[in-house]
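Hi all, long-time lurker, first post. I run a small reading group and we've been trying to get comfortable going from sequence to structure in the token notation. Rather than ask abstract questions, I figured I'd post a concrete chain and ask someone more experienced to write out its structure so we can walk through it together at our next meeting. Sequence below, copied exactly:
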Amino acid sequence: MKKLLLSILIFMSISLFSQNDTIKNWTIKGKASLNFSQSYFSNWSAGGENSITAVGKYTMNADYKKDKKSWTNWLDLALGYSIIGKADPMKTEDKIEFISAYDYTFKKHWSISAVLTFKSQFAKGYDYANDSSNHISGFMAPAYIDLGPGISYKPNKHFSVNISPATPRFIVVMDQDLANKGSFGLTPADTVNNVVQNAKQYKAAFGAKLLMTLGYDIAKNVNLSTKLEMFSDYLDNPQNIDVNWQTMIALKVNSWLNVNISTELIYDDDVIIKDANDNPLGPRTQFKQMLMVGIGYSF
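-- Answer (accepted) --
Happy to help. Here is the structure in token form:
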């Protein structure tokens, strides 16, 4: 597994240092923001709990363009917690996401591409409703790494779609306890003569992937952005397609104040959802929605 991660880092480093052109061929943009939601009750007869939620976000684009070659890099980081009443803080947002795409245009709007995607999280996650003492995820547990060649279609600056029909995917779970449980589609640990034989901390898949992005201003100071990823594993139930669909509507109030509405829909055939009694229910559609007011700085 370490050799795999090292190979990916070397690939990224070679790509970076192979660019000998000056900074004029690069466009770099970024945004850092801190978003809040809050409620307060005092002698409220209907009942209620004081609460506060804070989410820090950082996004960055570094795009290279020269002649028929382009190299797009996108980083999205987020971490947030909520405190309700006197309860311990609960994680509400946690994301590490990086996409790097190299394109060579062979026809107007069409290009040959290679796309690398990486997804993970910063902190441990818990099933707060059923068991807040044992974590169910963590840093690099899981991590998803995809790297595949394909074809891209970009008719304008707002929309793009990439199809990679031969994409290796590596699912990494660097937490041995979670790997032994068979979390995130890994093969669980075996027991031989009452001795646990640790499970492998990764799983390889090979399939087809679609990546679609759309972003534009739907009104003055109102931006809509959405990203859809779909993956079909040729080697394991190819008819069950993994889906990750993220959407955000950002309302810019002034140069530093904004209102964000975000949604995320996930279906992963390898992720088994459990009920309150820890009984497996099978794969389920996961959905998250957040409405936040925040302060931000763009560059």
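A couple of things your group might point at:
The radius of gyration is 21 Å.
The longest helix spans residues 2-17.
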